[in-house]
Specification:
The chain is an all-alpha fold and 457 residues long.
Length: 457
């Protein structure tokens, strides 16, 4: 801004001349950039906002100060029993020796200590099998991911259970091992040469210059040879039998939730497509199944499968209790996932269907290549939210006598040395649930950003 003033001695017969004089500069506005600007704009923009911010900071400080004082500051780390902990700090600090002594049981349940390496080996196989999904030069990520979901349970089932192997079970275990070896070899060959394992094997044997039929036969021969090697390895492997009644802890929770998650997504896709089908019978059956399992609490389904199902089976036929719980969880999760997928399908504009039809794509081609990928991207937050809920809902299996992570934490307080020790085990498993669920949530956010499915702000 500026001001205009008149000259003191104007010329005769003329109006006073105008002289430009700038006003003094004003102070610079408050910063709106960087951390300081964000804090000023979002936390101290007004007096009520500042009061709420100060109150929130005080609440967070008081909460974490109390938790850290109890869990770390006044905690007891060495004691022979709970009585000794109480003699040292009373109830003002945590008694961690009981939790430390029970950590193997909280993780593995009552699984034999000398056989725990089998669970650890299965975890290592899972990590190695999933590793190619994050390697940028691997091109067969979809096939590797599909093999992980379908074949990984076949391989690790024998690691967990062991015992005698029949011909059929040996063939299935060998199929899982062959899938694992194929995933590793494909990741290695595609990283080095850009060719999958079967194509690399054909090229290495000098058969890459033949006809298409010869190349296909060579690829099938390479895969068959890999399966034969896996079958021979499975025949040489012998593990002792571990009954499912001693499975427990975090291991059992991951088994139930992992199978439920892996089964619910493809089953939910099939049910959602079936409910939207134009064939009345298929649509009716899928709708009845979805509404039936969505209208009943999971705990009721667990009781039904655990108590009522044996009454409908022939005399002498008995289904494993863990298997009954897994089937109940899978069916329940599939019904909820079906509605999530159906919501994603309804969100796709009609023009996408018309465009796919105009390109000459059939129903399954249009669904698999155009419609379903978009629907899944739209519903990523809800799908992962269902997975997180399913992981937490597995605690309900403790109602039917399975010793999952929650049941094992309760068992700590029933130990004669640590009688009444409830708070510390529950706090420990709370941290485990938080880490797992937070990791799944962050992966969901990362996946949204990579697929450009999240909201842009």
């Amino acid at each position: 801004m500026s001001e205009v003033v008149s000259r003191d001695t104007p010329l005769a017969g003329q109006p006073p001349a105008e002289i430009f004089r700038p006003r003094p500069p004003r102070a610079a506005p408050a910063s709106t950039l960087g951390v300081q600007g964000w804090v000023r704009q979002n936390m101290f923009s007004s007096i009520p906002n500042a009061l709420v911010t100060v109150l929130g900071i005080w609440i967070v400080y008081a909460f974490f100060d109390t938790i850290l004082t109890w869990a770390v500051g006044n905690a007891v780390w060495e004691a022979a029993n709970r009585r000794e902990c109480l003699d040292k700090v009373g109830r003002s600090g945590a008694c961690w020796p009981g939790v430390i002594a029970w950590i193997p049981n909280l993780i593995y349940g009552l699984y034999p200590k000398d056989q725990v390496w089998r669970i650890n080996l299965a975890g290592l196989v899972l990590v190695l099998w999933a590793l190619p999904l994050w390697l940028p030069r691997v091109q067969s990520k979809a096939l590797i991911g599909l093999s992980l979901v379908l074949l990984f349970p076949l391989l690790v089932s024998y690691f967990f259970l062991g015992g005698e192997k029949g011909v059929i079970w040996s063939a299935l275990i060998a199929l899982g091992l062959a899938g694992f070896l194929w995933a590793l070899l494909t990741a290695a060959t595609e990283t080095v040469s850009g060719l999958s394992f079967s194509r690399f094997a054909v090229a290495a044997l000098g058969a890459g210059g033949g006809s298409d039929a010869a190349r296909r036969n060579g690829q099938l021969a390479a895969l068959l040879a890999l399966y034969v090697v896996a079958f021979i390895a499975v025949q040489a492997l012998s593990l002792s039998f571990v009954p499912t009644r001693v499975w427990g802890g975090l291991f059992l929770t991951l088994v139930i939730s992992g199978i439920g998650i892996a089964f619910s997504l493809p089953a939910g896709i099939v049910l959602a497509l079936g409910r939207r089908s134009r064939m009345p019978l298929i649509s009716l059956l899928c709708t009845v199944f979805i509404e039936l399992f969505r209208s009943v609490p999971l705990i009721t389904i667990l009781f039904m499968f655990n108590t009522m199902l044996p009454l409908f089976l022939p005399v002498g036929v008995e289904v494993n209790q863990l298997l009954r719980a897994i089937v109940a969880v899978c069916l329940f999760a599939s019904a909820y996932m079906a509605e999530v997928i159906r919501g994603g399908l309804q969100a796709i504009p009609r023009g996408q269907y018309e465009a796919a039809s105009a390109m000459g794509l059939g129903f399954w081609q249009a669904t698999g290549l155009v419609i379903m990928p978009q629907a899944l991207k739209i519903m990523i937050p809800t799908i992962v939210g269902n997975f997180i809920g399913l992981f937490k809902d597995t605690t309900l299996v403790s109602i039917i006598g399975l010793f999952d992570l929650l049941s094992m934490s309760r068992a700590v307080a029933e130990d004669t040395r640590w009688l009444g020790l409830f708070l510390e085990p529950f706090f420990f498993i709370t941290m485990i649930y938080f880490v797992v669920c937070f990791t799944m949530s962050q992966y969901s956010l990362n996946l949204e950003q990579r697929l450009s499915a999240g909201e842009r702000r």
